[in-house]
Amino acid sequence: MDGQEEDDSARSLGEALFRDILALIHSGGIAPGATLGEATLARQFGVSRGPVREAIRRLQGIGLVTREPFARARVALLDRAAVDDLFDMRVALEGRACALAATRMDESAITSLLAALEQARRRDLGDPDIPPDDFDFHLQLIEHARSPRISAVLGGDLYPLLRLYRRWSGARPERKSVAYQEHWQILRAIRSRDADLARSLMEQHIEKARANLMTALDASPTIRPAPAAHSPAVPTAPILPADQA
Amino acid sequence: MDGQEEDDSARSLGEALFRDILALIHSGGIAPGATLGEATLARQFGVSRGPVREAIRRLQGIGLVTREPFARARVALLDRAAVDDLFDMRVALEGRACALAATRMDESAITSLLAALEQARRRDLGDPDIPPDDFDFHLQLIEHARSPRISAVLGGDLYPLLRLYRRWSGARPERKSVAYQEHWQILRAIRSRDADLARSLMEQHIEKARANLMTALDASPTIRPAPAAHSPAVPTAPILPADQA
DNA sequence: TTTGGCATAAGTGTTGACAGTTTGGCGGGG
DNA sequence: CCCCGCCAAACTGTCAACACTTATGCCAAA
Description:
Chains A, B: Residues 224-245 are annotated as: Disordered. Chains A, B: Pfam families: FCD, GntR. Chains A, B: Keywords: DNA-binding, Transcription, Transcription regulation. Chains A, B: One of its GO terms (molecular function) is DNA binding. The structure is a homodimer. Chain A has helices at 13-26, 38-45, 49-61, 80-104, 107-126, 137-144, 148-169, 176-191, 195-219; strands spanning 35-36, 65-66, 73-75. Chain A has 2 domains: 13-75, Arc Repressor Mutant, subunit A, CATH 1.10.10.10; 80-219, Four Helix Bundle (Hemerythrin (Met), subunit A). Chain A has a 3-stranded antiparallel β-sheet. In chain A, 62% of the residues lie in helices and 3% in strands. The longest helix of chain A has 25 residues, at 80-104. The termini of chain A are far apart. The first copy, chain A, has 9 helices and 3 strands; from the N terminus they run H-E-H-H-E-E-H-H-H-H-H-H. Chain A is mainly alpha-helical. At the A-B interface, helix 3, helix 4 and helix 7 of A face helix 3, helix 4 and helix 7 of B. Chain A binds a DNA duplex through helix 3.
């Protein structure tokens, strides 16, 4: 009766719990530094500890929770070092994905993506209050790189973390227009089949995002560990704005 | 009494089982394409299904086993597409790691690594039958990049897979000398603090390894699915030669 | 002979309970 | 007043059993 939406896209409870707990952290229901115990979460979601264990295990796999052998799991703190590490990996993977896309995308896909980008820009800049569509340039581009492994890590692991960081730092809307411009430049490089240029552009683009997040993080130096994790918890999905950088 | 070495480096059974099953696949005890059932493995190792489930889950996480919701897990087939994907990711991550190392390594670390490289080269080329020391240039370099996330993925996930592929394709010893030379060039670029050059060199180096593996894979086009996975299984650790490319 | 459906079997997903370990607090001693 | 050792509560790791899903083999009908 309370929160327990069964997501039909996940066949197993563990998978669904992974998303649910991720959403909980996104929405701020759990806050970084808080401790999440298996039994507590199990009671909260009305399931047994098995699926919860799997979900936490996977959360640990993506580096969102830290845990030593017998200690309880804690949501990773959001400090500069972690952001730096995260972005190092993102630059590596997305730069390569961009180069691959420049080689593997066909003309129709490029024009289609270009059109989608333009449409998203219009809608986004014209009506700022409309949720910026869930069009995500980066995810689309990654998908077009046709590298299952890179797609899985980027889309399944890194991006949820990035969204989390963005939630705590706050994205600045005035950067959107320049971000769109950079996206357009990248696509142009891809259209001219210049893989090196496309990668370089993408790397610079992401480096800018890193710098942005860093300054935003400096404003609120460290996320405080948050008092308790016993909040009734709203299991509703977070309504974060789509990616922008 | 049969295979069940307790590795003290793993505090939980799940972790130990992860390594054990990995070793089993490495040693050829399970062979790609074979199906591994939880109950079977549980009986084989004398534990319950819980830890086995966690181990398989993690194996699935690194892409070594494929699995749809309710079907049994199968060891991933070793085809060209998988190798291509694997190396795309490796180029991305290790290229970046190399650039980071060029920035972050201090002089003493560089000279130390250089000396270790020279020592390994001598021992390896001089006494070909001696196991080439478990000195692994790539792993050392990755460690020096000081990026926990990249290190974890590369050292914990990708490299076990690479060793598996090399086991089935066979490494050619005549490539060792040229590999050493390339390693030396990379280190020289790092010493001169030329991050771009170091990355480029590393990328080319890995691309060569990819081409090598591809031709070796063409010789034996596809690994046959192997008849049964019920072999008594030798749980002894695999004695694979150290990395070389 | 081939094809369709069905019953059995195998296997995974999930659950609740038990054992071992860590952590926090409490009391006694210095 | 501070420090050390002990105790209890909480939590994780592990296990055996139940429910549900999928695959396999057989049998009958066309």
